[in-house]
Protein 1
Amino acid sequence: MKLSPYGSGSLKINLNGIIVIVGNYGSGKTEVAVNLAMDQKKAGKAVRIADLDLVNPYFRTREAREILSRMGIDVVLPPRKYLQADLPVLSPLVSGMIRNPSELTIIDAGGDDVGATVLSSLADAFKGRTVQTLQVVNPFRPFTETIEGCLKIKDEIENASRLQVTGIVGNANLIDETTPEHILFGYEFVRRLCRESGLPLVFVAVMKRILDQIHEPPFECPLLVMERSLALPWMKQG
């Protein structure tokens, strides 16, 4: 097997330092960010995660703050009175966690270039620090169903955030309608995207219930095996 430069010999995810998670609206980046934090905590790392998603009112890291906190993961949120606000509110703790990062510090940014704009306000804190910016790609979402569309989103996020995307994360899914065939298609899609962009495929995210249905998984990269941690809007209403 060809090993990812981000993985160990057993193809486990092994990330350290400051990791910024970006992606287009609906890519599933927040679910990825939350599951990545839990995965790396279980691997024995000290993990902090900050919620800078000020765009999406439903899928936010803050929705999973209780389970994250119970695991001993430090969750940095805007002040309590702004938790449900769609306002550009930044806690001073976010700048502080960038200047003094944990073993693994994950920043969940908002979707598209609009959500990534808030990252540009942290330029001073990022200055002189090594930052890995990972673009989560779901080829079953509008605007990222083609390689060209993914590259366009990448350029827009980079311009808005003033950060360079350093790696790709595959997260092919159609929520509850996802099949093994969707996962395998998505894997080949992000491999092509990486060849076109010259960026590494850092890992592929797969829900455990789907992975269990794939016979002899072909993945030549680390896997993030996920469980749903964020309630869908219609589930909340129910």
Protein 2
Amino acid sequence: MIKKIAVLLSALCLASAAHAEMKIVVLDTVRAILETEEAKVLIEAAGKEMEPEQDEVKGLAEQRQALIDKVRKDGEVMSNTEQNQIQKDIEALEIDLQFLSQKLQKTVQDKRQEILVALAPKFEKVRNDLIQVEGFDMIIAPNALVYVNPKNDITKKITERMNEQSD
């Protein structure tokens, strides 16, 4: 039993010493790319491209709300037939709204992915250059951590270096 404890303590000491010598940093790849000036321009352009769809979703939401308000305001003086028809119209608008919202969300995700793919080679070059210059032993994604000291997060450094490079 004492032998096992001694071996365990030795292993912990060696692991601790090895950890002290390693240069471990954190990098949020997606954030590093999407916070670059180039990505911001592409995101803005994609937003403008999607304005008609956004306007359509907004218009349907306004129509639906107007019908809901009408039922609340005039529901007591409406016939059952009229109330039922308005309820059917509201349900139809909700279905259309849900469909268009999901379609728009898919478009947003696709555009975001296109931007990430387009800027990936530049990111990889900057990351690899920084690994060589700084001598990092390990890079960890932030979603795998409970806590990280901000001084060990190189995301901003990568973004800044990508901004410095011009195509």
Protein 3
Amino acid sequence: MENNEELLLTKDGLEKLENELHHLRTVKRKDIAARIKEAISYGDITDNSEYEDAKNEQAFIEGRIITLEKLLRRARLLEKSEDADGYIALGSVVKLKENNKGQNYEYTIVSTAEADPTEKKISNESPVGKALMGRSVGEVIEVKVPAGKMSYKIEDIK
């Protein structure tokens, strides 16, 4: 994804990124500053592992803040009217049936920034997400995944 490319986000995804940024700026920065101050109070910082750990965490937090700020500058909220009725688009909740084993799955199609497999949110740029975009109920898709070739029937779209 290009750095200046527009990033479409669902309302939930946008709120999640904004909340994370707010938490990092208001809570985590203060926590890490307190840890650094305490580590410095122990004296010599050259062999102070608490100080090193705190500085490393501070660098991670600042890097994440910069990343989130860049994402949010490019973000545009996905409007419901942009969904093509009956076709899979960003924000669609899709019910699939795996053809070989008959197992059912339900995924929400989201942008890469929102993807979280533990919450059944898959990226529109993932192999399955790409194959689903623009498809409709009843269609069968075949997807090449690390485990091999998988075949799914689209059962429902919300």
